[in-house]
Records
---
Amino acid sequence: MLNEGENNQSRASEQRQNKRFEIVRPFQVYDRVTGRSLGTVVNVSVEGLMILGERDIVESAVYQASVSLLVNDQESALSLGIECLWVSDADSDDKQWCGFRIIDISPDDRSLLAEVIEQLG
């Protein structure tokens, strides 16, 4: 039987249209409003990302986020609006898995994200 988080993950994967790529080098996600870390990107697509995040991420909440990443051996940061679609407990007491949909991203950052995904693929 699926718990609620697994059920949410299942629904999200059924809705997913783009292939997700696992991250080899961890990318940090920061809340641009508070400056605090939301967590580490586990996988990414042009439509969303999954992070291993802090315990206080709220399902259905919208975040203004910054993602630090490495593109062609240069440090870059994406600015994006993300909506938390689901949250599920991780094995660690203070972490949770979180699935996000990208709801706002500039054309330049979308191109940068596509480049990162191409490098991962």
---
Amino acid sequence: MFDIGFTEILLVMSAALLVIGPKQLPETIRVFARWVARIKKLANELKSELENEIGVEEIKTQLRNETILTDFEKDKQALQVLDEEIKDTRLDFMNAYSFSEEKGNQNSNQNPTQNPDNDADELTTQRS
């Protein structure tokens, strides 16, 4: 709050000791501390009264709710995008699976006696 260093406090205390005197200095400090406490209390009461009058808590709550709602909408949009990507991937997978099934059916129709295991055996015998 105040930019007062040790040297300034020492200077004020020595000046107060010279002006007020050593006998009345403790009582003067107590009175000064009471006044400071009263001023702080009044300032806090004024602040809380102004906040109540303006409705600061209601505004804070409303802003917090709007922030939560905005975050919720962003998350909802992100989930919709993710859902679309999952659907596209599923369709791609199903198309690829049906294509490989069709290709397998065509191969089996062209050469029904050919077995993929036999192909591997034939390759090994040809290399030998």
---
Amino acid sequence: MAERASLIQQGRQYDAEIVGCYFDSKLKDCLNRNRQRTGKAKIPDVGLYATLKKLVQPDYAEGFHRLFHVAIGADGAFDVTACRQDVKEVFDRSSPPAGAMVHTAAQLGRGLE
């Protein structure tokens, strides 16, 4: 979170729109994808465990203008959900919260232009 704070502050100084995306990844899935990699693309499993410990879901209170939850859908495509500002988002890693807007990754990209 501290790592994000300085970037958010810098963006605010330039009146930038601060947009955050939380990539919801299950450790089991990450380990499986990593096992399929070769060469420099493959990292030691300990790197995945260490990164998981550091992950902190972003919150509007940090200064974000918009937040999105990103998960890999059953078809392998990204499912992007806009997080409501009036609700403290806690994802159960299986479905977006009630009232959330679900977008495809392509739709999200168009919305950021």
